[in-house]
Every structure is written in structure tokens, then in C-alpha cells.
Fold this protein.
Amino acid sequence: MTSRLFTPLEIGPVTMANRIMIAPMCQYSAIEGSASSWHTVHLGSLALSGSGLLCLEATGVSAEGRITHGCLGLYSDQNEAALAQVLAHLRAVSPIRLAIQLSHAGRKSSSRAPWEGGTLISPEDGGWLPLAPSAVAQRDGEAPPRAMTAQDITKLVDDFARSAARARRLGFDAVELHMAHGYLLHQFLSPLANQREDEYGGSLENRMRLPLRVFDAVQQACGPDMAVGIRLSAKDWVEGGWDVEQSIVLCRELDRRGCHFFDISSGGVSPAQQIPVGPGYQVHLAEAIKREVKAPVIAVGLITEAAQAEAIVADGRADAIAMARGMLLDPRWPWRAALELGGTVTAPKQYWRSLPAGTSKVFGDIRSAQR
């Protein structure tokens, strides 16, 4: 029987060779927002994984939208030129589909890298004053962010559109909008962070207004040949916060507007979250969204075993799976999954002889390469 995980998947105008996505993972290794040698090596390794889609890390649409000083950006000609060099290397060695996650960190910006503690950096210490829906700090003891004005909101929408246009020029196959993990668009959605009293706060319709404006602007900037999807925290795991029912309303509206895929995660907006972490702990959230939309839904969260991933897709709980830390640990995970499930992956000819005898179907007919 053919492995469902290793069948193609269409996300709008883009076809993934299989249903394995490498999720965005921040590397905190950029220089003034520009990709560095680290990105070439890191992404080059992942590009050889045989996955159907590789999504680059959360990429700031403005300098102040980055999480840290070391986060990737796509807001300047220098950023675009540096990323063009990285993509040229990736394209030269792999046919993998490439996406970029566009983001603004909101009140979680101006932070130290995780290995430096992850705490906020004050303007006096070389950071900047973060923007947010409301002047509400994420953690007790932190300085509050500045509540965004109408002018700030207009600039934000324009920043997302300009970064999307750069992504289009660079030849990315897809854009993923970051509406998850407590960053700015998630902050507008969640009543825990959004206490505005204007048209962007209060009711669900109002809290959805800015994320929908951003989606529309990015969709227009990307044009018909790129897939545009979202990463969404479907639940805050805090009483009174963003939840699955509200997520369904948002996803239905995005689906109506032509969203090409939904990458479903959870949490991140509050340190009070209580998340029951375990194998596949977020799959039920993806399953709930999948019942309500037509576009493909991607499940993520401690999906580590081939049989586990196969069951999620084969049982119709999600259309694809995404892996992050597990792929860092084992960048050839799709090869191992193909061996176990009887699937086929694309791999460089230079590595074909890495497989045990009798497993030629994983890379197609490799007998001619065996000497």
C-alpha cells in the first residue's frame, strides 16, 4: 500500500512532492537582518532532507519587528540581496519547495537570544521600544510596549506587503504569515494582549480586522503564482484567551478569502499558559480546523515517528505534518520515514549509496550508482 505521507499535496498554485514540511525555526544568526553564512549551511542541510516544503524562520517585516538583533529580516535591499545568495545555493542543489514566514514580533521584540536569557532589551541598553495592540506587558516586571496608533497600523500593513513583494522577487514558492506564538498578529487576536477600544479591539470581528488586512495585502503582493498561508496559534491555553472556537471563525474567513494552507500550532501569548505537552499534542487543533475549511491543514507538535505521521495524514486528521526540532536532530528524517513506510524521496545522487542494499525504491532506481 502506498504511503499517504509520501503522496503529493497541492497548496494553492504550489505542489509539494510529499506531505512533510520543515517548520520555521529561528536561528538568531542574522546580521542587521541579513542572512549569514550560517543560513547557507543550516538551510542547505535541510534542503537535502527530501521534505516537501522548507519554510524559513520568522522574518521581520521591519527592523523593529524582529524578535532579536540576530533575527532574519526582509525589509531592506541588503536583506534581499543576502537572502538571494542563500537561495541561489539552495536552488543549485535541491528542488525542494521554499517558503518564508513573515512576521512582526510586537511586544516580544527587542529581546535577547534564548541562549542569552531571552529577556527584553531596553532602549538604554541598545534595544528599542516594542509596539503592541495595547500597552500591556507580556510578563510581570517587564516594561510595557507602546500601543500602536492608526499610523502604526497602516505602516505595518504596508511593511508586510513590501516584504511579500521582496519574497516574490526572490522566487519563494510560498509565504506563511505568522499569526502564532504570541507575536504581533496573534496579540491582536487574543483578548489577553488586545485591550483596545477602537475598531481593532473588543469584539472578535474587531480583533480579526488587522490580521485580515495583512493577509489581503500580502495576498495581493504575492500574486497568483505563490501560495499564501498562515501559522496560527489555535489556542492560548489560558482561560479567557484565544480559543478553538474563535480560530474556526478566523480560518473560515481566511478560507473564504483564498488562504492556501493553515499551519496549526498553539500558545505563546502568555506565561500563564498550561499546555499538556505530549506526542502529537496539537493534532486535535489541526483536526478541528480541518473540519471547517477547504484548504489543506498542517499539523505540528511533537510529531517524531514515521508511523505517527503516517497515521495523522492517512486518518484524515490533517493533510500534512510539520517538524521543527525533530528535523534539527535528524535532518534526514524523511529518508528514514521513507524507508519505514515504503515511500520515495528526492535526494542528491552523491548520497544514494548511503542506503542499505535492497532499499533502492526510496531514491528511485539507484542500482546504477552502486559501485
In short: The chain has two domains: 4-331, 343-371. The longest strand covers residues 53-60.
